[in-house]
Design a protein that fits this description.
The protein folds into three domains: 169 residues, 3-Layer(aba) Sandwich (Rossmann fold); 78 residues, 6-phosphogluconate dehydrogenase C-terminal fold, CATH 1.10.3660; 73 residues, Alpha-Beta Plaits, CATH 3.30.70. An eight-stranded mixed β-sheet has the order 3-2-1-4-5-6-7-8, with helices on both faces. With 374 residues, it is an alpha/beta fold. Strand 4, helix 4 and strand 5 form a beta-alpha-beta unit.
C-alpha cells in the first residue's frame, strides 16, 4: 500500500468510535447519519414518527435501535419546541452518554433545562449552519455539512473528553468548528438568519398582492432578497418564538434606520436628503464586504454577466472555456428571462481575472451583457 493511500485512509478515518444515537430522522438527523455511516460509524436512529424512521433507515441513514445499544454520543435533531424535552429524556435514559442537539436556538432549551433542575454536565449544545429548502429524510445527504460552520456551546461544567466527542462529530461530517456561548450564538443567528427570514417574508408578502404586470419585471434582485421566504411557517414560528428578544431588538433597529431614510425619500430635493440615502446604501456596501466569501475570506470579487443560450451543454461549455482561460469561478448566479430563449449567468471572479475573462470569452463568441467595470 502506497504512502499516499495510507494518508488518504487516515484522513477518511472516523474520529468517533462506538455507537452514535441520532434522535430525529429528518433532514439534519438523517444527514448526520449518512455522513457518519460513510465513515464507518455505527448509527442508531430514533424518531417519534414510525414512518419517518423507517424511511430514513431504508435510505441508509442508520439502523433501528436494539436493547443492548450503548451509545457514547447522542445527537438530538428534533423541532425546537420539543428539544428540551428530548434532551432531558435522553440524559435520563443513557446515563453514560454525552448528549448534544442541533437546534437553531441554543439559550432557550439550555435555560429551560436548568429551570427543571436537570444536571447538564453531559449536555453540550451545538448547531450546524446547514440546510436545504426541502426537509425530511428523503432530502438528507451525506455532504450537507461539508465546509459549513458548526457552533459548539461549552460552559464551565463541560469536561474535555465530552467536548472532544462533539467536536469529533462536527469534524467527521466535514464541518468547520466554531465555539460560542449560547448568548453569542443566538444573537449571531438573529442577525445572520432569523431577521433575514422575517425581512424576506415581509417583502415577499407584498408580491402576493402585486399585479401580474409588475411580477413580469421581477429580476435577480427580488429573487435574491426573497429566496428564503419559501421556508416552512411551522418551523419558523418555533425558531422565532425561541429567539424573540434579539430578533425584536434588530427589527427595532431596522425600523429606526427606515425612519431616517423615509423622510429623505419623501423630499428627495431637501438639503441633506441625497446624502442620507447615499449613506444608507454605502453602509450596506460596507456590510456586504464584511461577509466571509470563498474559504472564509473577506474578499471583494468582480462580476460579469454572460448570456447563455437555453440549450443543453451551454453552461458546461462556458465553465470549460473559463478553465481554458485560467479563470477560477468564485461564485455563480443564474437568471432566466421570462419568454426569452437564453439565461444570464452572473459570474464572480478575482479582480485581476476580469478583463482577461471578458476578452477571452468574447473571442470565443460569448455575449457579455455587463460587468462591474461598466
Amino acid at each position: 500500500m502506497s504512502d499516499s493511500h495510507d494518508a488518504r485512509a487516515r484522513q477518511n478515518a472516523a474520529r468517533l468510535s462506538g455507537t452514535v444515537r441520532v434522535v430525529g430522522a429528518g433532514l439534519l438527523g438523517a444527514s448526520i447519519g449518512h455522513a457518519l455511516r460513510a465513515k464507518g460509524v455505527d448509527v442508531v436512529l430514533a424518531d417519534a414518527s414510525p414512518s419517518q424512521l423507517r424511511l430514513a433507515i431504508d435510505y441508509g441513514a442508520g439502523r433501528a435501535a436494539r436493547e443492548d445499544d450503548a451509545p457514547r454520543l447522542i445527537v438530538v435533531a428534533v423541532p425546537p419546541d420539543v428539544t428540551a424535552d428530548v434532551i432531558e429524556a435522553e440524559l435520563a435514559a443513557h446515563p453514560d452518554a454525552v448528549v448534544t442537539d442541533v437546534a437553531s436556538v441554543k439559550l432557550e432549551p439550555f435555560d429551560e433545562l436548568r429551570r427543571r433542575g436537570i444536571d447538564l454536565t453531559r449536555y453540550i449544545g451545538s448547531h450546524p449552519l446547514a440546510g436545504r429548502e426541502r426537509g425530511g429524510a428523503i432530502s438528507a445527504r451525506a455532504d450537507l455539512f461539508i465546509g459549513r460552520p458548526w457552533v459548539v456551546c461549552r460552559d464551565e461544567q463541560t469536561r474535555p473528553a465530552d467536548l472532544a466527542l462533539v467536536e469529533a462529530l462536527a469534524l467527521d461530517v466535514g464541518a468547520l468548528l466554531l465555539e460560542m456561548t449560547p448568548q453569542e450564538h443566538d444573537r449571531a443567528v438573529a442577525l445572520t438568519s432569523h431577521v433575514p427570514q422575517v425581512v424576506a417574508s415581509l417583502l415577499a408578502g407584498r408580491l402576493a398582492e402585486a399585479d401580474e404586470g409588475s411580477l413580469r419585471l421581477a429580476g435577480q434582485g427580488v429573487r435574491d432578497t426573497t429566496r428564503i421566504a419559501a421556508s416552512a411557517p411551522e418551523l419558523w414560528v418555533q425558531i422565532l418564538g425561541a429567539n424573540a428578544a434579539p430578533v425584536v431588538e434588530l427589527l427595532d433597529a431596522l425600523a429606526g434606520a427606515r425612519r431616517e431614510v423615509a423622510p429623505a425619500l419623501r423630499a428627495p430635493a431637501a438639503p441633506g436628503a441625497r446624502r442620507a440615502v447615499a449613506d444608507a446604501i454605502r453602509q450596506g456596501n460596507e456590510g456586504v464586504e464584511r461577509l466571509p466569501g470563498k474559504h472564509g475570506q473577506n474578499r471583494r470579487f468582480e462580476t460579469m454577466v454572460v448570456m447563455v443560450d437555453d440549450t443543453p451543454g451551454q453552461l458546461g461549455r462556458l465553465f470549460g472555456e473559463l478553465g481554458e482561460l485560467g479563470v477560477n469561478v468564485e461564485d455563480l448566479r443564474l437568471e432566466h428571462s421570462p419568454g426569452a430563449q437564453f439565461g444570464l449567468a452572473e459570474i464572480s471572479v478575482a479582480p485581476a481575472s476580469l478583463r482577461g475573462a471578458i476578452e477571452g470569452l468574447e473571442e470565443r463568441g460569448w455575449r457579455i451583457a455587463g460587468n462591474t467595470n461598466d
